[in-house]
């Protein structure tokens, strides 16, 4: 029996939608900028260009982030974590019987917590892109599936 959990960031904006949004924002704000340029306030244009550059970079980073996914596969004996990003694919495996799921509190108070799967002196973070609420729910679900150290609860059908 096997349980599989697919994790991906919430990227509701498609590449075509991002391009359309960027073009519409550029044209709309350029119209306002040109109004002020016609009034003699020409220094508005370099600031408009800087704003649009910042917006373009933010959209580019958001589009790159959508390629990051994690798959957690839990079998009777193993826990497998496959992380896919623009750099490629990385796979971690743990013995389920010796694994432990931990939700670590953040050091600085305003930082997010970290959901870790630990075993044999190794630890790997799961769901770093999730919201705090989603991370807590995932920690509870993984805790029920993995169990504590020296404890492997049976995998039941949902």
Order of strands across the widest beta sheet?
Answer: 1-2-3-4
| Percent in strands | 25-35%
Principal-axis shape equals elongated
Total of helices: 3
The number of domains is 2
Mean pLDDT, to the nearest integer, reads 88
Unreliable segments of 5+ consecutive residues: none
The structure class reads alpha+beta
Distance between the termini: 12 Å
Q: What share of residues is helical?
A: 25-40%
Give the C-alpha Rg.
23 Å
* Biggest sheet descriptor: 4 strands, antiparallel
Q: Would you report the number of β strands?
A: 7
Q: What's the order of the H and E elements?
A: EHHEEEEEEH
Summarize, please.
It contains three helices and seven strands; from the N terminus they run βααββββββα. The protein is α+β, with helices and mostly antiparallel strands. It folds into two domains: 2-9 and 70-146; 15-65.
Written account of the structure:
With 158 residues, the chain is an alpha+beta fold. It has two domains: 2-9 and 70-146; 15-65. It is built from three helices and seven strands, in the order βααββββββα. It has helices at residues 15-38, 44-65, 132-146, and strands at residues 2-7, 69-75, 78-85, 88-95, 100-104, 114-119, 122-126. The strands form two sheets. The chain has a four-stranded antiparallel beta sheet with strand order 1-2-3-4, with no helix packed on it. A three-stranded antiparallel beta sheet has the order 5-6-7, with helices on one face. Helix 1 packs antiparallel against helix 2. The longest helix has 24 residues, at 15-38. The radius of gyration is 23 Å and the shape is elongated. The N and C termini lie close together (12 Å). The mean pLDDT is 88.
């Amino acid at each position: 029996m096997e349980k599989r959990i697919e994790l991906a960031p919430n990227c509701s904006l498609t590449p075509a939608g991002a391009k359309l949004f960027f073009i519409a924002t550029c044209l709309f704000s350029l119209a306002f900028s040109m109004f002020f340029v016609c009034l003699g306030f020409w220094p508005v244009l370099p600031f408009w260009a800087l704003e649009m550059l910042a917006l373009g970079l933010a959209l580019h980073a958001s589009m790159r982030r959508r390629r990051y996914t994690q798959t957690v596969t839990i079998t009777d004996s193993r826990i497998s974590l496959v992380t896919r990003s623009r750099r490629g694919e990385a796979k971690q495996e743990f013995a389920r019987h010796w694994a432990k799921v931990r939700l670590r509190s953040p050091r600085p108070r305003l930082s997010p917590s970290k959901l870790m799967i630990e075993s044999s002196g190794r630890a790997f973070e799961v769901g770093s892109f999730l919201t705090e609420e989603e991370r807590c729910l995932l920690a509870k679900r993984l805790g029920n599936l993995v169990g504590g150290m020296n404890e492997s609860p049976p995998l039941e059908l949902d």
